[in-house]
Structures are given as structure tokens and as C-alpha cells.
Amino acid sequence: MKEFLPTLRGASRGAPNSIFKGDQTRSQLIKNELASARAANDAKTARLRALRLEKERQDEAAAAVKPAIAPLKEKRKPIRRISG
Predict the structure, then answer these.
(1) Is residue 12 one of the residues assigned to a domain?
(2) Closest C-alpha among 45, 25, 27 to residue 37
(3) End-to-end CA distance of the chain
(4) From first to last of its 84 residues, what are the pLDDT tens digits of the chain?
(5) How far apart are CA 51 and CA 57, in angstroms?
(6) Alpha-carbon span 81 to 61, nearest angstrom
(7) What is the pLDDT of residue 3?
(8) How many domains is the chain built from?
């Protein structure tokens, strides 16, 4: 039964860095995942910025073509004063 149980002594007989290899691979996987998420977010931001700038250009072009019409003032209702 003892031959099936892992021991620290048995683990240390291999390469000295073999103990930390699992931690290093997990750390590298997390770094790669974060980098890909960051790249996807940057691409989305660039796409949305381009769409916003295009819409602003279209709005400016439409405003330049259409003459500006001043809004009409509403007539004010006369104030009824009650003398008393």
C-alpha cells in the first residue's frame, strides 16, 4: 500500500522544477486567456469607434444640406388678474 502513495521524496528525485511545472503552465494559460480577451475587447472598441465616427460624419453632412429652421415661439397666454 505504501508504494502507491506519492511522497515528496519521490517527487524531488525528478527535475528540481518539476514540482512547479503545473503552476507555471496554469499561469501561462491564464495569461494567454487574458491576452486574447484584451485583444477581443480592443477590436470591439475600435469597431464601435469607427461606427460612431461614421454616424457623426453622416449627421454633419445631413445638417449641412438641411437649412436650419428656427423654432417658432409659442404665444403666451395672457395672465388673468383678479382684482379684489
Answers:
(1) no
(2) 45
(3) 110
(4) 556 655 555 555 666 677 778 888 899 999 999 999 999 999 999 999 999 999 999 999 988 887 667 677 788 888 888 876
(5) 10
(6) 50
(7) 62
(8) 1
Q: Is residue 38 part of a domain?
A: yes
Residue 30 in any domain: the answer is yes
- H/E/C letters for each residue in the chain? CHHHCCCHHHHHCCCHHHHCHHHHHHHHHHHHHHHHHHHHHHHHHHHHHHHHHHHHHHHHHHHHHCCCCCCCCCCCCCCCCCCC
Its domain, for residue 44, covers: 24-65
The three cell numbers of residue 38 are: 484584451
Domain assignment of residue 36, yes or no: yes
* Whole-number Å distance between alpha carbons of 50 and 46: 6
